[in-house]
Protein backbone atom coordinates (compact mmCIF):
# COMPACT_ATOMS: atom_id res chain seq x y z
CA UNK A 1 0.00 0.00 0.00
CA UNK A 2 0.90 3.65 -0.12
CA UNK A 3 2.97 5.15 2.66
CA UNK A 4 0.62 6.98 4.97
CA UNK A 5 1.43 10.29 6.60
CA UNK A 6 3.13 10.28 10.00
CA UNK A 7 -0.15 10.51 11.95
CA UNK A 8 -1.52 7.63 9.88
CA UNK A 9 1.48 5.50 10.72
CA UNK A 10 1.20 6.40 14.39
CA UNK A 11 -2.42 5.40 14.24
CA UNK A 12 -1.65 2.03 12.67
CA UNK A 13 1.05 1.34 15.26
CA UNK A 14 -1.61 1.34 17.95
CA UNK A 15 -3.58 -1.40 16.22
CA UNK A 16 -3.24 -4.95 17.49
CA UNK A 17 -3.61 -6.09 13.88
CA UNK A 18 -4.65 -4.70 10.54
CA UNK A 19 -5.20 -6.11 7.09
CA UNK A 20 -5.93 -4.69 3.68
CA UNK A 21 -8.97 -6.24 1.98
CA UNK A 22 -9.47 -6.63 -1.74
CA UNK A 23 -12.98 -5.16 -1.51
CA UNK A 24 -14.97 -2.92 0.83
CA UNK A 25 -15.75 -4.25 4.30
CA UNK A 26 -19.42 -4.73 5.16
CA UNK A 27 -19.49 -6.97 8.24
CA UNK A 28 -17.07 -8.59 10.64
CA UNK A 29 -17.64 -11.35 13.20
CA UNK A 30 -15.25 -13.09 15.59
CA UNK A 31 -15.32 -16.88 15.74
CA UNK A 32 -17.01 -18.26 18.87
CA UNK A 33 -14.37 -21.03 18.94
CA UNK A 34 -11.02 -19.57 17.83
CA UNK A 35 -9.98 -16.44 19.72
CA UNK A 36 -8.05 -14.88 16.83
CA UNK A 37 -10.26 -15.90 13.91
CA UNK A 38 -12.39 -13.38 12.02
CA UNK A 39 -14.97 -13.60 9.26
CA UNK A 40 -15.29 -10.51 7.05
CA UNK A 41 -17.97 -9.95 4.39
CA UNK A 42 -16.85 -7.69 1.54
CA UNK A 43 -18.20 -6.12 -1.65
CA UNK A 44 -16.80 -4.40 -4.70
CA UNK A 45 -17.93 -0.96 -5.93
CA UNK A 46 -20.02 0.10 -2.93
CA UNK A 47 -22.02 -3.12 -3.27
CA UNK A 48 -23.91 -1.70 -6.24
CA UNK A 49 -22.51 -3.88 -9.00
CA UNK A 50 -19.63 -6.33 -8.98
CA UNK A 51 -18.26 -9.20 -6.94
CA UNK A 52 -17.89 -10.03 -3.30
CA UNK A 53 -15.72 -12.10 -1.02
CA UNK A 54 -16.34 -13.88 2.25
CA UNK A 55 -12.93 -13.74 3.91
CA UNK A 56 -11.68 -15.73 6.91
CA UNK A 57 -8.61 -14.32 8.69
CA UNK A 58 -6.44 -15.46 11.60
CA UNK A 59 -4.49 -13.08 13.82
CA UNK A 60 -0.77 -13.85 13.48
CA UNK A 61 1.13 -11.24 15.44
CA UNK A 62 0.20 -7.89 13.92
CA UNK A 63 -1.01 -9.49 10.72
CA UNK A 64 -4.35 -10.98 9.80
CA UNK A 65 -3.51 -13.98 7.65
CA UNK A 66 -6.12 -15.26 5.18
CA UNK A 67 -7.35 -18.78 5.97
CA UNK A 68 -9.94 -18.95 3.21
CA UNK A 69 -11.58 -16.68 0.66
CA UNK A 70 -14.93 -17.60 -0.89
CA UNK A 71 -15.47 -15.64 -4.11
CA UNK A 72 -18.99 -14.48 -4.96
CA UNK A 73 -20.38 -13.06 -8.18
CA UNK A 74 -22.31 -10.54 -6.09
CA UNK A 75 -21.69 -8.36 -3.04
CA UNK A 76 -21.37 -10.20 0.30
CA UNK A 77 -23.16 -8.23 3.03
CA UNK A 78 -23.15 -10.18 6.28
CA UNK A 79 -21.88 -13.37 7.91
CA UNK A 80 -22.43 -15.46 11.03
CA UNK A 81 -20.53 -18.36 12.60
CA UNK A 82 -22.18 -21.62 13.55
CA UNK A 83 -22.48 -21.86 17.35
CA UNK A 84 -21.88 -25.64 17.20
CA UNK A 85 -19.22 -26.30 14.57
CA UNK A 86 -16.05 -24.23 14.43
CA UNK A 87 -15.68 -24.83 10.68
CA UNK A 88 -19.17 -23.77 9.66
CA UNK A 89 -20.18 -20.28 8.63
CA UNK A 90 -23.14 -18.69 6.85
CA UNK A 91 -23.04 -15.63 4.62
CA UNK A 92 -25.55 -13.66 2.56
CA UNK A 93 -25.30 -11.80 -0.71
CA UNK A 94 -26.78 -9.29 -3.10
CA UNK A 95 -28.26 -12.00 -5.34
CA UNK A 96 -30.73 -13.06 -2.64
CA UNK A 97 -28.67 -16.05 -1.51
CA UNK A 98 -27.80 -17.57 1.85
CA UNK A 99 -24.77 -19.89 1.74
CA UNK A 100 -23.41 -22.34 4.31
CA UNK A 101 -19.66 -22.84 4.10
CA UNK A 102 -17.45 -25.59 5.54
CA UNK A 103 -13.91 -24.34 6.17
CA UNK A 104 -12.51 -27.83 6.67
CA UNK A 105 -13.41 -28.97 3.15
CA UNK A 106 -13.48 -25.40 1.70
CA UNK A 107 -16.81 -26.39 0.18
CA UNK A 108 -20.24 -24.82 0.18
CA UNK A 109 -22.57 -27.13 2.08
CA UNK A 110 -25.76 -25.45 0.88
CA UNK A 111 -26.87 -22.38 -0.98
CA UNK A 112 -30.44 -21.16 -0.68
CA UNK A 113 -31.99 -18.65 -3.03
CA UNK A 114 -35.43 -17.63 -1.84
CA UNK A 115 -35.14 -13.92 -1.12
CA UNK A 116 -35.97 -11.86 -4.20
CA UNK A 117 -33.63 -8.96 -3.37
CA UNK A 118 -30.35 -8.29 -1.56
CA UNK A 119 -29.98 -10.18 1.72
CA UNK A 120 -28.52 -7.70 4.16
CA UNK A 121 -28.41 -9.61 7.41
CA UNK A 122 -27.85 -13.11 8.78
CA UNK A 123 -27.61 -14.48 12.33
CA UNK A 124 -27.16 -18.03 13.63
CA UNK A 125 -28.79 -18.50 17.02
CA UNK A 126 -26.47 -19.03 19.95
CA UNK A 127 -29.44 -19.79 22.23
CA UNK A 128 -31.11 -22.56 20.23
CA UNK A 129 -27.92 -23.53 18.32
CA UNK A 130 -29.93 -24.58 15.28
CA UNK A 131 -31.74 -21.84 13.45
CA UNK A 132 -30.57 -19.08 11.13
CA UNK A 133 -32.47 -15.84 10.50
CA UNK A 134 -32.02 -13.63 7.42
CA UNK A 135 -33.38 -10.21 6.51
CA UNK A 136 -33.59 -8.83 2.99
CA UNK A 137 -34.54 -5.88 0.84
CA UNK A 138 -37.61 -7.81 -0.33
CA UNK A 139 -39.13 -6.68 3.04
CA UNK A 140 -39.11 -10.24 4.41
CA UNK A 141 -37.40 -12.09 7.23
CA UNK A 142 -36.82 -15.84 6.88
CA UNK A 143 -35.88 -18.56 9.37
CA UNK A 144 -33.84 -21.56 8.22
CA UNK A 145 -32.50 -24.84 9.55
CA UNK A 146 -29.16 -25.94 8.02
CA UNK A 147 -30.44 -29.48 7.38
CA UNK A 148 -33.58 -28.39 5.54
CA UNK A 149 -33.72 -27.74 1.78
CA UNK A 150 -35.83 -24.58 2.08
CA UNK A 151 -36.72 -21.93 4.65
CA UNK A 152 -38.98 -22.94 7.54
CA UNK A 153 -40.95 -19.71 7.71
CA UNK A 154 -41.24 -16.25 6.16
CA UNK A 155 -42.23 -13.16 8.16
CA UNK A 156 -43.56 -10.31 6.06
CA UNK A 157 -45.03 -7.64 8.34
CA UNK A 158 -42.39 -4.97 7.67
CA UNK A 159 -43.40 -2.28 5.17
CA UNK A 160 -39.87 -1.62 3.95
CA UNK A 161 -36.51 -3.33 3.52
CA UNK A 162 -34.92 -5.24 6.39
CA UNK A 163 -31.53 -3.98 7.53
CA UNK A 164 -30.75 -6.26 10.46
CA UNK A 165 -31.93 -9.45 12.14
CA UNK A 166 -30.70 -10.93 15.42
CA UNK A 167 -31.63 -13.82 17.67
CA UNK A 168 -32.05 -13.12 21.36
CA UNK A 169 -29.11 -14.63 23.26
CA UNK A 170 -31.52 -15.40 26.12
CA UNK A 171 -34.58 -16.95 24.44
CA UNK A 172 -34.24 -19.82 21.97
CA UNK A 173 -37.30 -18.80 19.92
CA UNK A 174 -37.06 -14.99 19.90
CA UNK A 175 -35.45 -12.77 17.29
CA UNK A 176 -35.65 -9.12 16.27
CA UNK A 177 -35.61 -7.32 12.94
CA UNK A 178 -35.07 -3.65 12.05
CA UNK A 179 -36.39 -1.98 8.95
CA UNK A 180 -36.57 1.04 6.71
CA UNK A 181 -40.14 1.38 8.04
CA UNK A 182 -38.66 2.88 11.25
CA UNK A 183 -39.65 -0.03 13.47
CA UNK A 184 -38.03 -2.87 15.35
CA UNK A 185 -40.15 -5.99 15.45
CA UNK A 186 -39.68 -8.80 17.93
CA UNK A 187 -40.80 -12.22 16.79
CA UNK A 188 -41.37 -15.65 18.23
CA UNK A 189 -40.32 -18.00 15.43
CA UNK A 190 -43.48 -20.07 16.03
CA UNK A 191 -45.86 -17.11 15.51
CA UNK A 192 -46.67 -15.61 12.13
CA UNK A 193 -47.23 -12.16 13.61
CA UNK A 194 -44.67 -10.07 15.48
CA UNK A 195 -45.17 -10.22 19.24
CA UNK A 196 -43.93 -6.65 19.68
CA UNK A 197 -43.40 -3.63 17.43
CA UNK A 198 -41.21 -0.77 18.63
CA UNK A 199 -41.44 2.54 16.72
CA UNK A 200 -37.88 3.18 17.83
CA UNK A 201 -36.85 6.04 15.53
CA UNK A 202 -38.46 8.41 13.05
CA UNK A 203 -36.05 7.27 10.34
CA UNK A 204 -34.68 4.01 8.97
CA UNK A 205 -33.26 1.67 11.63
CA UNK A 206 -30.08 0.10 10.32
CA UNK A 207 -29.07 -1.99 13.30
CA UNK A 208 -29.97 -3.47 16.67
CA UNK A 209 -28.34 -5.68 19.27
CA UNK A 210 -29.64 -7.54 22.30
CA UNK A 211 -27.88 -6.98 25.60
CA UNK A 212 -25.89 -10.07 26.53
CA UNK A 213 -26.67 -9.51 30.22
CA UNK A 214 -30.34 -8.52 30.34
CA UNK A 215 -32.95 -10.32 28.23
CA UNK A 216 -35.16 -7.21 28.08
CA UNK A 217 -32.59 -4.62 27.01
CA UNK A 218 -31.73 -3.84 23.41
CA UNK A 219 -29.96 -1.09 21.49
CA UNK A 220 -31.00 0.39 18.13
CA UNK A 221 -29.09 2.59 15.68
CA UNK A 222 -30.58 4.77 12.98
CA UNK A 223 -30.11 7.09 10.04
CA UNK A 224 -31.11 9.82 12.55
CA UNK A 225 -27.52 9.53 13.94
CA UNK A 226 -28.67 8.35 17.36
CA UNK A 227 -28.46 5.12 19.31
CA UNK A 228 -31.35 4.32 21.62
CA UNK A 229 -31.50 1.86 24.49
CA UNK A 230 -34.85 0.15 25.09
CA UNK A 231 -36.42 -1.96 27.80
CA UNK A 232 -38.89 -4.38 26.20
CA UNK A 233 -41.11 -4.29 29.29
CA UNK A 234 -41.66 -0.53 29.11
CA UNK A 235 -41.66 0.57 25.47
CA UNK A 236 -44.57 2.96 26.05
CA UNK A 237 -42.38 4.94 28.48
CA UNK A 238 -39.95 5.63 25.66
CA UNK A 239 -36.29 4.78 25.39
CA UNK A 240 -34.10 4.25 28.47
CA UNK A 241 -31.32 6.38 26.97
CA UNK A 242 -30.37 8.24 23.79
CA UNK A 243 -26.71 8.23 22.78
CA UNK A 244 -25.86 11.26 20.68
CA UNK A 245 -22.53 12.07 19.09
CA UNK A 246 -22.29 10.40 15.69
CA UNK A 247 -22.41 12.88 12.80
CA UNK A 248 -23.99 10.51 10.28
CA UNK A 249 -26.06 7.32 10.28
CA UNK A 250 -25.26 4.59 12.82
CA UNK A 251 -24.65 1.45 10.80
CA UNK A 252 -24.01 -1.16 13.50
CA UNK A 253 -24.23 -1.46 17.28
CA UNK A 254 -22.72 -4.24 19.39
CA UNK A 255 -22.88 -4.82 23.14
CA UNK A 256 -19.76 -5.97 24.94
CA UNK A 257 -19.79 -9.63 26.04
CA UNK A 258 -17.75 -8.67 29.13
CA UNK A 259 -19.30 -5.47 30.49
CA UNK A 260 -23.09 -5.04 30.68
CA UNK A 261 -23.03 -1.28 30.05
CA UNK A 262 -20.48 -1.08 27.24
CA UNK A 263 -21.65 -0.64 23.66
CA UNK A 264 -19.72 -0.07 20.42
CA UNK A 265 -21.14 1.70 17.37
CA UNK A 266 -19.91 1.94 13.78
CA UNK A 267 -21.01 4.87 11.66
CA UNK A 268 -21.00 6.50 8.25
CA UNK A 269 -19.10 9.38 9.94
CA UNK A 270 -16.03 7.08 9.59
CA UNK A 271 -15.70 6.61 13.34
CA UNK A 272 -16.18 3.85 15.83
CA UNK A 273 -17.44 4.93 19.25
CA UNK A 274 -17.43 3.04 22.52
CA UNK A 275 -20.08 4.08 25.02
CA UNK A 276 -20.69 3.36 28.69
CA UNK A 277 -24.44 3.25 29.12
CA UNK A 278 -25.65 3.28 32.66
CA UNK A 279 -29.23 2.10 32.47
CA UNK A 280 -30.51 4.57 35.05
CA UNK A 281 -29.23 7.70 33.30
CA UNK A 282 -30.67 9.72 30.46
CA UNK A 283 -27.30 11.32 29.71
CA UNK A 284 -24.61 8.84 28.74
CA UNK A 285 -21.00 9.28 29.66
CA UNK A 286 -18.70 10.69 27.01
CA UNK A 287 -18.05 8.17 24.30
CA UNK A 288 -14.54 7.34 23.19
CA UNK A 289 -14.07 7.93 19.47
CA UNK A 290 -11.72 5.93 17.26
CA UNK A 291 -10.90 7.50 13.89
CA UNK A 292 -8.61 4.93 12.31
CA UNK A 293 -10.75 4.43 9.20
CA UNK A 294 -10.90 6.81 6.24
CA UNK A 295 -14.31 5.73 4.94
CA UNK A 296 -17.70 4.55 6.25
CA UNK A 297 -17.33 2.02 9.10
CA UNK A 298 -19.87 -0.76 8.56
CA UNK A 299 -18.73 -3.66 10.71
CA UNK A 300 -17.82 -4.00 14.37
CA UNK A 301 -17.62 -6.93 16.78
CA UNK A 302 -16.28 -7.52 20.29
CA UNK A 303 -13.97 -10.48 20.78
CA UNK A 304 -15.45 -13.14 23.09
CA UNK A 305 -12.13 -14.16 24.64
CA UNK A 306 -10.05 -10.97 24.85
CA UNK A 307 -11.88 -8.35 26.88
CA UNK A 308 -12.20 -4.98 25.15
CA UNK A 309 -10.69 -6.20 21.88
CA UNK A 310 -12.73 -4.99 18.91
CA UNK A 311 -12.61 -5.69 15.18
CA UNK A 312 -13.87 -3.18 12.62
CA UNK A 313 -14.18 -3.16 8.84
CA UNK A 314 -14.77 -0.28 6.50
CA UNK A 315 -15.33 0.88 2.95
CA UNK A 316 -11.65 1.91 3.05
CA UNK A 317 -10.95 -1.79 2.30
CA UNK A 318 -9.36 -2.55 5.65
CA UNK A 319 -10.12 -4.63 8.71
CA UNK A 320 -8.57 -3.63 12.03
CA UNK A 321 -8.26 -5.16 15.48
CA UNK A 322 -7.60 -2.94 18.48
CA UNK A 323 -8.01 -2.62 22.24
CA UNK A 324 -11.02 -0.39 22.86
CA UNK A 325 -10.11 0.05 26.53
CA UNK A 326 -6.97 2.00 25.61
CA UNK A 327 -7.37 5.64 24.60
CA UNK A 328 -7.20 6.20 20.84
CA UNK A 329 -3.93 7.50 19.38
CA UNK A 330 -3.51 11.26 19.86
CA UNK A 331 -4.01 11.96 16.15
CA UNK A 332 -7.55 10.66 16.20
CA UNK A 333 -8.48 11.77 19.69
CA UNK A 334 -11.77 13.56 20.05
CA UNK A 335 -13.92 12.87 23.04
CA UNK A 336 -17.11 14.83 22.72
CA UNK A 337 -19.92 15.17 25.16
CA UNK A 338 -23.37 14.56 23.70
CA UNK A 339 -24.65 17.82 22.23
CA UNK A 340 -28.14 18.80 23.20
UniProtKB/TrEMBL annotation:
The keyword NADP does not apply. GO terms for molecular function: peroxisome matrix targeting signal-2 binding. One of its GO terms (biological process) is protein import into peroxisome matrix. PROSITE patterns: WD_REPEATS_1, WD_REPEATS_2, WD_REPEATS_REGION. InterPro entries: Beta-prop_EIPR1-like (IPR059104), PEX7 (IPR044536), WD40/YVTN_repeat-like_dom_sf (IPR015943), WD40_PAC1 (IPR020472), WD40_repeat_CS (IPR019775), WD40_repeat_dom_sf (IPR036322), WD40_rpt (IPR001680). Its main location: cytoplasm. It is found in: Cytoplasm, Cytosol; Peroxisome matrix. Gene3D superfamilies: YVTN repeat-like/Quinoprotein amine dehydrogenase (2.130.10.10). Pfam families: Beta-prop_EIPR1 (PF23609), WD40 (PF00400). Keywords: Cytoplasm, Peroxisome, Protein transport, Repeat, Transport, WD repeat. Residues 158-275 form the EIPR1-like beta-propeller domain. GO terms for cellular component: cytosol; peroxisomal matrix. Belongs to the WD repeat peroxin-7 family. This is Peroxin-7. It comes from Lotharella globosa.
Amino acid sequence: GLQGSAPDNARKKDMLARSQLEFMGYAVEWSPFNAGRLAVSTSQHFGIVGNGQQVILDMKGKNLAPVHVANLSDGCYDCTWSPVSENHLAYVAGDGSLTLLDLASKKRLRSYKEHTAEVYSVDWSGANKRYIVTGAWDNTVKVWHPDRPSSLRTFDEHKNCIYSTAWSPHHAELFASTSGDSTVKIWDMNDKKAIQTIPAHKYEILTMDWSKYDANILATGSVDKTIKIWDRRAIEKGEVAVLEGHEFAVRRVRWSPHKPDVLASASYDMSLRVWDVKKDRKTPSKSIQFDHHTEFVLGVDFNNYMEGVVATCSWDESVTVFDSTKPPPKTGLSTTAPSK
